[in-house]
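Incident log, entry 3
Record: ABC transporter permease (810 residues)
Problem: checksum mismatch between cached and fresh output.
Input:
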Amino acid sequence: MFKINAKLAFRNLAKHKLYTFINIGGLAISLAVCMLILLYVNSEVNYDNYHPNKERLYRVALDRFYPDHTSYYALTPFSMAEQAAIDFPEVEAFCRIFPGFGIDVTYENESFLENGLKAADKNFFEVFGIKIIEGDKADIFNVPNAVVLSESTARKYFGNDQAIGKILKSALGDLIVSGVAEDTPQNTHFKFDLLLNLELLNFLQAPNFLNFSVHNYLLLKEGVDPELINEKYVDLVENYAAGQIERSQNISFEEYKASGNGYRYYLQPIQDIHLKSQLEAEFEVNGNITYIYIFLSIAVFIVALAAVNFINLATARSTERAKEVGIRKVLGSERKQLISQFLFESIFVSVVSLLIAVALIFLIMPAFNGFTEKTMALATFLTPLNIGILLLFSLGLGLLAGLYPAFILSSFKPVTVLKGKLISSKNGAWIRNGLVVFQFFISIVLICSTLIVGQQMDYLQNRNLGFDRENVLVIQRAFNLPDLETFKTEVSKIPGVNSIGGASAMPGSGIYFGASFRQEGMNEAVALNCAVFADEYLETMNMELAEGRSFSKDFQDTLALMLNESGARALGIADNPIGARISNVQGANNPNGNITYQVVGIIKDYNYKSLHTEITPMAIFSSESAQGGNVANLALKIDPAQSAAIVDQVREIWRGQAPNQTYVYNFLDDSLNGLYEAEQKSGKLFLIFTSIAIWIACIGLFGLATFIIGSRIKEIGVRKVLGASSARVVFLLMNDFNKLILISVLLAVPAAIWVMQKWLAGFAYRIDLTDTWVSFFIGGIVSLLVAWLTVSYHSIKAAMSNPVKNLRTE
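Fresh output:
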């Protein structure tokens, strides 16, 4: 029986090549895309899955409440985890990680700029699941200047030689290599090339419950509910941070809270950080769980579209195969034989499609890895469980597609069928129409969503941020220059350099320090983000002053301060800010006592962070300030036509001043675009997958039109004999599909609006959906055009056919 069914299946599939190509090709491509999506999702959801105690390992995060806004931080005070381990018996261990900075490291006269530097407590390798390749884990940080290298970094410096005991030179002094660790996995929320002993960083060591400086982690004991620790942190803040607040702000902690200030510490499961944490000062740009849901939905949609095609074509062809069934019944075939043949053929197509899909994955994987910047392998996905699921899915899909022709056709009486009196079931037509509506419902939702994602990306890249992002060359690590003023003078002479200014942090960098201020005569202090500006920074960045002036060498600006508009409002001086006296209360940035500044200018609010977050209050010190300032970046407004030459000339001036320090630069617009890298990459994937989904819907519609119009060929002949023009016939055939597309549009637009509202909620600054009606209009029109183009070939061919030929059997 198997041999006979196989022979008949091969013969039938070979006879109907177009049908076979559409079914196998569409199903194979959809399964391949689905598996690619699942591979991508699998790599995203398994971040930090390698830690041995991952179920008990948490990061301490903070919601910081201000009177007019709330900020959300991944960085927390240095003492928060250590004190929790002392006070909370539920805590087994704690570990702190300092996020690090770029530093030049030299070995035997060869220097490298190391941006992957971090520092951690001595028990780092006990808490986290990173293995030591060389060295003793228990004694890895035996001296303050010990450093652990990643395996690839050790090979970079020492080749195949042993690394232990080697000395690296840096601005932090000599670093003794005490160990080599395996490279951190790609799917971890923190990575390092060099890991310092946290004790080496003396500026961190004082007890501190207010200033955010490290990522704190807690390893809880077995069975401890993290909510219990969240509740206990309320007491820890009142026991330790409250006193520090009262001393620095000169008000009681109760008054401080009553004014709208507050701290809520909570624990984040380490496995949730990559996809569910979008806090300030993350180690890297995290993923987004919303995209995971979107991609999974697309995977389901694509497979559903292919399955609909498969089932739709199977039911559409059932009428054509009715005479085949009648003849076989006359020749003695039993019903069970007919059922087994139809089911075998359907299952065969489904399984072959799966095998082709796996082959396609192997071909596509290198390009997909390059695009997503991941190192995924199909072998990791093809576990026995997943293979079983895929086979069951193929078998199930084959059974589902084969049920209608198998059971319905096998029940027909051969006499009725052979007389040509078989009448298509209205239920069958309803099913086919419903499946077409479903296909285009999905396609329209995806088209509209893709257009709106593109509009939001365009908005992010072109929104007026309050400064000029174009043609700004940023020279980083300017603090390494021995004579900054001479360097700036030389650079300003380069043709094409229009202006130059300095700043401690550039927009989008996230490297801002915090400080508390209060208006003179007031008790309540307000925490602001702070930066240092120098020279013609405002002019270089084309920032606008709302009131007052910027810093100038014509004035003694050691006690001058500038605020953004939000900062003036937060301090209560928005109505008359210029000349207001503001005290910078004692804290980490001025440990020697309060310093009183005079406000000389108000900068119009500008987006100094990602557009995911709202503009927050900010204070700007002069580089000549009594507080002291670090101009880490120089911003050069340049002529874009000479950018390459300017970069090279600045490099030569840098080498003349700091030959042992690495020259690092970037263009501001590139770094700002990098803030939305996840959205841009996901948007491109979304576009690719949407295009594939639409293509699958089209080939399904093309195949369906082949059989539907073929079944009406005699009707078309009669209409033409009775005088209908070819154009009229084409209109009648297309009109049936137009109705289905209209129904799809009416259902899809509300669904697309709901999906996009959810996605746009992740941006503080976003397009208004009421302004995107064109996208929904285009989505409907594109779907209609696609349907017309898909169906038009068969419609025109049928309308132009000779009616005599079509009716000759009647």
